[in-house]
Amino acid sequence: MSSVRSRGAFIVIEGLDRSGKTTQVATLQTRLETEGIPVKLFKFPDRTTTIGQMIDSYLRSQSELDDHVIHLLFSANRWELAASIEQLLAAGTTVLCDRYAFSGVAFSTAKGLSLEWCRSPDISLPAPDVTLFLNITPEQARSRGGYGEERYEKEELQRKVRDVFQQISSEFTEATWVTIDAGREREDVAEDVWKIVYPLTGGLAIPLQRLWE
Ligand code: FDM
């Protein structure tokens, strides 16, 4: 009888700008490490690769690229790390990902590209076991001190991004896409994140799924 070997969980954290995503991801990573759970964090875009450097230059408005081109570069940046993610999961490591294909679709669709077109280059990437979406209202975002300097850090675009994230989430089950109210105290948000993630860290016996297949 064939059996699926236990593997690590693939956990994606997405969130709106100013949702405290970076802090929550760091807190989660530290807590997992403290518990002795093998964990590896990826962050997309990964600006360290050759493709990542092109993305970085674009985001800091040091270069101009057609909307389709930058979308494909973001996707290629995930594909170049997909094999590493799969290997880690197979070895039993919990993989955390700060942003993933959902940011890819949300931002490019918000800029005016079609959602279906945006989704296609990311089809077949490793699918997360759960996506945690850190949600805040535009008003909360504003009260947290406004946006930064990079290309996409503008209120109108962020509103559109929020709508596309909502559209994307409607295709997932409640178990695979969890929206967390990130407008609360940092500790309360971290506790909700932990309650969802910790039970997944004991090893999963289900095969890794492919995104949007
Ligand atoms: N972003 C991020 C995209 O437009 N597409 C993508 O595929 C990804 C992963 O890049 F505004 C956007 C989201 C954000 C910007 O992200 C840089 P960080 O998290 O601020 O580095």
TrEMBL record:
It is an enzyme of class 2 (transferase). It comes from Mycena albidolilacea. InterPro entries: P-loop_NTPase, Thymidylate_kin-like_dom, Thymidylate_kin_CS, Thymidylate_kinase. Keywords: ATP-binding, Kinase, Nucleotide biosynthesis, Nucleotide-binding, Transferase. It comes from the Eukaryota. Pathway: Pyrimidine metabolism; dTTP biosynthesis. This is Thymidylate kinase. GO terms for molecular function: ATP binding; dTMP kinase activity; nucleoside diphosphate kinase activity. It holds the Pfam family Thymidylate_kin.
